[in-house]
Prior knowledge:
Layout: E1 11-14, H1 18-21, E2 23-24, E3 27-28, H2 38-47, E4 54-57, H3 64-76, E5 87-89, H4 99-104, E6 112-115, H5 122-131, E7 135-139, H6 146-159, E8 163-166, H7 173-182, E9 188-198, H8 201-204, H9 215-231, E10 235-245, H10 248-251, E11 259-268, E12 276-288, E13 296-303, E14 306-311, E15 318-321, E16 325-328, H11 349-365, H12 386-400, E17 406-409, E18 420-423
Parallel strand pairs: 1-4, 1-6, 4-5, 6-7, 7-8, 9-12
Antiparallel strand pairs: 2-3, 9-13, 10-11, 10-17, 11-12, 13-14, 15-16, 17-18
Helix pairs in contact: 5-6, 9-12
Pfam families: GFO_IDH_MocA (PF01408)
GO biological process, one term: NADPH regeneration
GO molecular function, one term: oxidoreductase activity
Amino acid sequence: MSSSSTPPPSVLMVGTGEYTTGYVGGTASNSDKGAGVVALSMFDFRSRNKVSQIGMCGVNGKKFPGIRQHMTKMIENVYSGLSTECSTFPDDTTVDPLAYKSALKTYKPGDVAIIFTPDDTHFDIALECINAGLHVMVTKPIVKTLKDHQTLAKRAKEMGVLVGVEVHKRLDPFYADARDRAKSLGGLQYLASYMSQPKHQLETFKAWAGKSSDISYYLNSHHVDFSEWVLHGTARPVRVTAAASTGVAKARDIDTEDSITLTVLWENFNGDGPKTLGTAVYTSSWVAPKSDVHSQQRFFMMLEKGEINVDQAHRGYTVSTDASGFASSNPLFMKYTPTNGKFSGQSSYGVKSFENFIDAVQSINEGNSTPDDYNDGSLASVHTTMQGTAILEAGRRSLDNDFAPYDIVYEGEKGIDPVDLRRHVFN
């Protein structure tokens, strides 16, 4: 709770979909996020005086009556003391893809924008928010191209605002511990990750799947970011080749890949010694069958002095009910079950991801820290996540160019910020 004379920031949530509200297609999402994550977290923060005014901005204002009813049912009627009152943009009769511009006029420098919209809209919205002096958190991938990422980083620096990427796997205690252990195990040898969602999610995402983005940007981004976080300063990705499987989505008239695999060559610095190579394989899919978890999430990582294996989907906690059947539960991500009628998910990493950002903003607004202080890995800053964007863009380029490999170009022998992508030329 903020006790300083600096008031807590107001928050504008841009995007009204599943992750923000849990509302999809006129009803609660049939995923593991029926009550949403972003809005629920913000309402909880307001109840703890961490944020002040809350606004929500979408494209189609005609959805807001249904969203309000949904949030009342899933939040106010479940958790005592949590109000879902918030300003909404555009009004309930208007469809306006640029409503965020009008919404921003009601906010001031030092406030916060949280962007959960289709991937191809992130850049324009984030840049507008940065130019308005807001601190900005964008869901992964922050943008789709290295050029756009560089532009946002430059503008954030000029405006003196904090811009971060919402990659909550960094707050997963298993992943965080794996990262810390990996630091002492030497250079990367091999990494294999897999992340999936059931094929019914294609219906949830059909408005943008294969149009504004793909499954690699959506899910591979998690483990790509984890790799960049773990290997920051000790290795860099230098070449990307992508492959894909197709058929299931196209049978549903959705023109996109079913699964995408990125093979990434990493270059280990090894101090003053000779550079060595490691290989990482990232696979994501949205055509998995329905199972005991909404999302399969796991990785195996072998380093010079050890190996790490994490199955995020199965934590040894299962629940079976007449209503929902058998499931492997993960309240470490989001604890929706109330305790004595109260929301008690504050320690969940889905919530902490936002709370850490809000706390950093408050510290900056109070003058106790600067945005540059968060380039140390404590947050996924726009300045420390360029390798991930380069990998994802190179993967998309590879798919679009007959699976050709793409090189990631740097300045200097140990430069860590990518400057360009080039199609690999074989000698």
